[in-house]
Automatic annotation (TrEMBL):
Co-factor(s): pyridoxal 5'-phosphate
Taxonomy, superkingdom: Bacteria
Protein name: Diaminobutyrate--2-oxoglutarate transaminase
GO molecular function: diaminobutyrate-2-oxoglutarate transaminase activity; diaminobutyrate-pyruvate transaminase activity; pyridoxal phosphate binding
One GO BP annotation of this record: ectoine biosynthetic process
EC numbers on record: 2.6.1.76
Family designation: Belongs to the class-III pyridoxal-phosphate-dependent aminotransferase family.
């Protein structure tokens, strides 16, 4: 470790409280699934900007189109004006993503980030139903603004901000009580007027909990929740900010369960390039916004529309989905081998697609492994309420060699911390 670098960083942090993860270096450039620090050290990226870089760093076609656009005096910021690049993105999204899946949604630009998509979803659900309560789940993560934080199932994150303000109810996510069907609890709470649960406007959930420890809900659980929402006239909001854009093997994570949410939140990898962009997809019958009811300055980033349109090219055929699923199978197999080889870890495989990982019950061990991985050239994050889950989140374009190389480092580091 470069101690000098570490101390410069700490000095910097004392001046400005920036958001720095515990990777003590200064990164200079990145390409594909690799990052390089300013001393030229190479790192495999198993973090992918927390899921914002599904197509890798500095995608050549995205780079080329952005440079051409800037050189030709393209409009960078356009708020909610009509621009060629916005129209192109919208047409492609309709043609490549929605139409082949027989999905009908109004597409809204709620603001630049995932939390903006969630806020807009909560607002419209309350407006449409005229109800206030929103059901959310244990260990969920939906963002850091007051509304999205209020439906985040992590009391530590909520405490400092004094949320929830009002009207949110936490229910157990799938597998929270192993062996139980927790969807049935929700139904019981709704039926029992003594439960104190007001008839909710909506249920919000992630199909795989990205920050909450990579718990993946089973398809039948998701279908049961979707069915309950229909019968109780509650809107189903799927937060696909992290699990969407191909992360679990299909463009939308919920496709695999064959459910059709009323509202879908997308962000992170929707721009394809790491540029800020978010979408809220709303079933046409729920599109009740009046002008001015949800606006904001940064909803018209044309560079993001350009790279987002390039990213959609990946979804024109089934090929990309198949590749992701093959790579996911490789990761599943490697995780199983690691768990076999190191039974003393008492680890548990988590996740789905290219958002898998290993939960390690011994406190602090996952973080030790992640720190050691950095020293060996791998950017690896931990997730879960106690940071107990090693999270493998590489760009989806990573090749098998990169996956093996990264997972080899994980294994070496495990061996090292266990020795
Ligand atoms: N929802 C989910 C599922 C997320 O993982 C995140 C970010 N980790 C958010 C919402 C919030 O997105 P942002 O950080 O862009 O506001």
């Amino acid at each position: 470790l470069n101690e000098e670098k570490l101390s410069t960083f700490q000095n910097y942090e004392s001046a400005v409280r920036s958001y720095c993860r515990s990777w003590p270096t200064v990164f200079g450039r990145a390409k594909g699934y690799k990052l390089y620090d300013e001393d030229g050290r190479e790192f495999i990226d198993f973090f992918a900007g927390a899921g914002a870089l599904n197509y890798g760093h500095n995608h050549p076609k995205m780079q080329e189109e952005m440079v051409n656009y800037i050189k030709n005096d393209g409009i960078i910021h356009s708020l909610d004006m009509g621009t060629e690049k916005k129209r192109n993105f919208l047409e492609r999204f309709q043609q490549i993503i929605l139409k082949p899946r027989n999905l009908s949604y109004k597409i809204m630009f709620p603001g630049p980030t995932g939390t903006n998509a969630v806020e807009s979803a909560l607002k419209i659900a309350r407006k449409v139903t005229g109800r206030k309560t929103v059901i959310h789940f244990t260990n969920a993560f939906h963002g850091m603004t007051i509304g999205s934080l209020s439906v985040t199932g992590n009391s530590m994150k909520r405490q400092g901000a004094g949320v929830p303000l009002h009207y949110t109810v936490t229910m157990p996510y799938d597998n929270y009580f192993p062996g139980a069907n927790t969807a049935e609890y929700l139904e019981q709470f709704l039926e029992d007027r003594g439960s104190g649960v007001d008839l909710p406007a909506a249920v919000i959930l992630e199909t795989v909990q990205g920050e909450g420890g990579l718990q993946a809900a089973r398809d039948e659980w998701l279908r049961k929740i979707a069915d309950i929402c229909k019968r109780w006239d509650m809107l189903l909001i799927i937060d696909d900010v992290q699990a969407g854009c191909g992360r679990t093997g299909t463009f939308f994570s919920f496709e695999q369960a064959k459910i059709e949410p009323d509202i879908v939140c997308l962000s992170k990898s929707i721009s394809g390039s790491g540029l800020p962009m978010a979408l809220t997809l709303i079933k046409p019958e729920h599109d009740r916004w009046q002008p001015g009811e949800h606006n904001g300055t940064f909803r018209g980033n044309n560079l993001a529309f350009i790279t987002a349109a390039v990213a959609l090219e990946y979804w024109k055929t089934e090929q990309f989905s198949m590749e992701i699923r093959e790579k996911a199978a490789l990761v599943t197999k490697r995780i199983a081998d690691i768990l076999d080889k190191y039974p003393q870890l008492q680890g548990e495989a988590r996740g789905r697609g290219l958002m898998q990982g290993i939960a390690i019950p011994e406190e602090g061990l996952a973080q030790k492994i992640s720190k050691q991985a950095f020293r060996c050239g791998l950017i690896l994050e931990t997730s879960g309420p106690k940071d107990e889950v090693l999270k493998f989140l590489p760009p989806l374009i990573i090749d098998n060699e990169g996956l093996h190389e990264g997972l080899d480092i994980v294994e070496q580091c495990m061996k090292f911390v266990l020795s």
